[in-house]
From TrEMBL:
Protein name: 7,8-dihydroneopterin aldolase
Organism listed in the record: Thermus filiformis
Pathway listed: Cofactor biosynthesis; tetrahydrofolate biosynthesis; 2-amino-4-hydroxy-6-hydroxymethyl-7,8-dihydropteridine diphosphate from 7,8-dihydroneopterin triphosphate: step 3/4
Annotated PANTHER family: DIHYDRONEOPTERIN ALDOLASE 1-RELATED
Known function: Catalyzes the conversion of 7,8-dihydroneopterin to 6-hydroxymethyl-7,8-dihydropterin.
Reactions mediated catalytically: 7,8-dihydroneopterin = 6-hydroxymethyl-7,8-dihydropterin + glycolaldehyde
Cellular component terms (Gene Ontology): cytoplasm
Length: 117
């Protein structure tokens, strides 16, 4: 099994429990790790997972719908990817909220989920 990683996908979204988060929105960063069976893989796109199509699924979910919790967004992304790409064996999704409304200094906040078939 091999792994494909899309790291640091940045989008503007309106996720969060506070009303101003829904109204103003913020930057969200998504990392996706995809485990794909490579043992019978050749050199054709049909034999793997198209990461441009993965990007599109992530973009639509992050920008097209509001989630109150980044955990729920991560779960929805993992489920959508497994449904859309039958070659995926396992997926890990991290949703970063670098500008979370925390009254203090911090580097990052993220939620992570992992799903497999």
């Amino acid at each position: 099994m091999g792994r494909i990683v899309l790291e640091g996908l940045e989008f503007y979204g309106r996720h969060g429990v506070r009303p101003e988060e829904g109204r103003l929105g913020a930057r969200f960063v998504v990392d996706v790790e995809l485990w794909v069976g490579f043992e019978d893989r050749g050199d054709r796109l049909e034999e793997t997972v198209d990461y441009a199509a993965v990007y599109q699924v992530v973009a639509e979910a992050v920008t097209g719908r509001r989630f109150y919790l980044i955990e729920a967004l991560a779960d929805a992304l993992a489920q959508a990817l497994l449904e859309r790409f039958p070659r995926l064996e396992r997926v890990r999704v991290r949703v970063h909220k670098p500008h979370a409304p925390i009254p203090g200094v911090f580097r990052d906040v993220y939620a992570e989920t992992e799903r497999s078939r």
